[in-house]
């Protein structure tokens, strides 16, 4: 939006797509943008692994960025028996933050304690220890409460800096538990840094760390973003994190961002990164994490009602103009030339495939593809734990087939034998229940003896769940490796009615080879048509949908077998050629869709839907001219502008006291979920009534949005207005001390202060909104609200100012 004459300087440490960003600047401002880029790191890093329960560290990636495969395997092998592969479904006892030793006991020093003791002995401090939750951060720091890393002079300096920092606070605020409890830790050279701390504490800890008075700092991921505070060593307490939806491996970009804190330029010849692992991981996962690239800079641009309304007020500028010039739009449209090139290549390949009797082959292909789809659906039903689990006895033959991919086209392992099966302790699903109502079961793991591709060492079992490292034995090899492989139920391609007698000790190679020989004998006896369990008679599946699925298969199978090509000797070659051609046709179709999508203005449908919402609620008229409600909404950006404007025009705030008003507005500024009980249970009627009106208003807006073709979840939208701080804010407005309101909740002090500061910003915007419609009473009320909350430690001045 800035004029083209303005010159820019963009600085960043890690952007792999800097050239793309520069191209966007060139396009929208019509001026050259020079990129100065280097991969050189002044202080190289060494990446070590510390296995749970271990006694030492293993160099996984050296300072030349070479992955040490042998050391990696040693580290994985050193994991304790209870730190098993996550894919096997066995429970994993986390060692991070606990005092567990390798044998599973809780006596003796914890893994973290051992690492930090080694770091201090080798003089690798200062060290930053990254954890992925605020509570874990504090628990880890308390583990070291008996250690002391500072001498008397350093302790005196810490005390002096700390006392000078808190002189601006009142006597009551200086007695806050968080302030009193953290000083003894700081004096011993141990610090904590996370978003739940009081802002003034975070700042004093940052100052102490910069001055070298803290030797160990326990921090969350936020410490690695926006703060230039490197250390000599960085420790990760876990390799997985919860991202709000699932627990997953750290991405390469996240790992680089945090590990980049290791190594101080001009002070250290190298930085040390130690990754604590308590789960077995594949080498590829480790390489992607330790040697991955930074996350690219991607646009997070999204439309808001305030943005749309403000753009409608400006003559010569429209929301469409904003969308067309956004980095989000540029990133999509810049792919078009490459997409066209790819499409031309695929079209030439498609035209180069000539299939004899193509129409006839096409008919056969359609029937077979549809039949395979129905069979896959049938297989999914048969593999439901409710139906398959009763038949998972040792000795039963099962057919295993992994889904084929481009890298691993052959995923058919053929028939194997169930060796072991441990059922998780979960409620049983009822036999014969409706398929759609079957509850989601935990991952069932079955150990199956399979004939696998020859391996260097013929161990009794595979190290991980049917991964790409385990391959079927090729047909031209007489003897493969007899491996016991843990398999998920979705890898089952058939459960046989045949069971065989099992040798007592399957760890013996001779026993396993004997079982594979028995499988071949069974296949020979039944002429490669090993009988499988009947889904109706044996497995007792009585669901109507499944019966319909079976009927469809029974209709298609005769058509397939009676087709002119079914017994044609040319079929394998013709079918393979036609299938290759269809794959290319599907790719071409997908690329055309991507090109169409990239060339059109993205988010245009959302813009149209949002405009419909604004018209229906009376914020704009049919000509998109802003009405009085729209002018009010233009002033609000710190909270949901539509709900706040509706509350304002419905006179909700007029009938509330100042304390009630400020308390209600806290629902718009607090976004965290507290783990306690529903806070509204103990609310007085003075808070319950305004909250009910707020939720009804939000529900109405959600319904109008859905009618206007907006994608919105009504329940989720209503629940986004969190009432957790309402009673706390009410007490604060009535003059309560900060220590008193902290005792009312388990929410971190830093989170309360952050929400209150956002609340003050929202109140200022509500003052401006009231002024825009000439309502002096509301303007006075919101101004009084600001005066009531803006006091003491909540709005203490920053130490950096």
TrEMBL record:
Q: Does the keyword ATP-binding apply?
A: yes
Q: Which GO terms describe its cellular component?
A: nucleus
Superkingdom classification of source: Eukaryota
Entry's PROSITE patterns?
Answer: HELICASE_CTER
Q: Where is the composition biased (Polar residues)?
A: 85-98
Q: Where is this region: Disordered?
A: 84-107
Q: Where in the cell is it found?
A: Nucleus
Cite the Helicase C-terminal domain residue spans from the record.
143-312
Q: Which GO terms describe its biological process?
A: maturation of 5.8S rRNA; RNA catabolic process
What are the protein's GO molecular function terms?
Answer: ATP binding; hydrolase activity; RNA binding; RNA helicase activity
Which SUPFAM superfamilies would you find in this protein's record? P-loop containing nucleoside triphosphate hydrolases
Report keywords, A-Z. ATP-binding, Helicase, Hydrolase, Nucleotide-binding, Nucleus
Q: Does the keyword Translocase apply?
A: no
Q: Which family does it belong to?
A: Belongs to the helicase family. SKI2 subfamily.
- Listed name of the protein: Helicase C-terminal domain-containing protein
